[in-house]
Amino acid sequence: AQSVTQPDIHITVSEGASLELRCNYSYGATPYLFWYVQSPGQGLQLLLKYFSGDTLVQGIKGFEAEFKRSQSSFNLRKPSVHWSDAAEYFCAVINAGGTSYGKLTFGQGTILTVHP
Amino acid sequence: GAGVSQSPSNKVTEKGKDVELRCDPISGHTALYWYRQSLGQGLEFLIYFQGNSAPDKSGLPSDRFSAERTGGSVSTLTIQRTQQEDSAVYLCASSPRTSAASYNEQFFGPGTRLTVL
Fold first, then answer.
1. B33, A103: Cβ pair inside 8 Å?
2. What's the sign of the alpha-carbon dihedral A27, A33, A38, A42?
3. What is the DSSP code string of B16-80?
4. Rounded to 10 degrees, what is the CA torsion of A105, B101, A26, B89?
5. Strand residue runs (E) in A27-115
6. Largest CA distance in chain A
7. Residues of A in Cβ contact (< 8 Å) with B42
8. Which of A52, A103, A105, A108 is the best residue to mutate to test the B interface, defined by the most B CB atoms within 10 Å of its own CB?
9. Higher pLDDT, A64 or B104
10. Cβ of residue A43 closer than 8 Å to a chain B Cβ
């Protein structure tokens, strides 16, 4: 069965610092991968997605992620963090094919705290 | 607005009571998903609708949970005889997915926070 692991439960960075959130997946075929962000009391907002093609994908709010098949990773990065980026971030893989019907399997989430 | 809406935003109920949670997907989205977000369990898939049919109910945790969708639009998740372990945020998402071979972004609603006392 597919799974997603986000090793870091909580990360703290200073405003203006760079950010990398880790995500590892387990999936038998080429995965469809997503990063979502959830602000307190809000639903999930899609930051970016990888389906195929270029392994470096650009998203909204200045985020990017790189798909590395050899490492089964899809890490999220941002060169300079803003205080408004404080939120919880979820990596997810979509179940593709068969009877999966496109449901998402999520990692446990990483809470990002930004210090001024 | 044009997004996914859910009601109520918060629901407090007593153990043993039934509750209904509503989801209004984005107009024209044929696919609808329910997920549950709880401490210790993270985000879990519950059920998927394509149109009014539910080909995948594999995530429903017990037979106390059921869901329906009418008119290819609104969906209701019903929990009977609620238990304290049902306390969670219930999220609904919709997608314009049109075939088994295509996958699109899922747009999420703000969720319903259910508290069972």
1. yes
2. negative
3. T--EEEEEEPPTT--EEEEEEEETTTEEEEEEEEETTEEEE-TT--STTEEEEE-TTS-EEEEE-
4. 0
5. 32-38, 44-50, 56-58, 64-68, 73-78, 87-94, 104-106, 110-115
6. 48
7. 106-109
8. A103
9. A64
10. yes
Distances (CA, A) of A87 to A43, A59, B32: 11, 16, 25
The per-residue pLDDT for A100 is: 62
Instruction: State pLDDT tens for residues B26-66.
Output: 999 999 999 999 987 889 999 999 889 988 898 999 999 99
Cα–Cα distances in angstroms (integers) from residue A75 to residues A53, A72, B46, B95, B97, in the given order? 16, 10, 27, 25, 26
Q: State residue B96's pLDDT score.
A: 86
Give the tokens for residue A8.
């870091």
Asked if residue B67 lies in contact with residue B89, where contact means CB atoms within 8 angstroms, the answer is no
B79's tokens: 């929990």
CB A9 within 8 A of CB A113: no
DSSP state of B84: G
CA distance B111 to B117: 19
Residue B88 CB coordination number (10 Å):
20
For residue range B5-37, list pLDDT tens digits in order. 999 999 999 999 999 999 999 999 999 999 999
Chain B residue nearest residue A37, CA to CA = B108
Q: Which residues of B touch A34 (CB under 8 A)?
A: 105
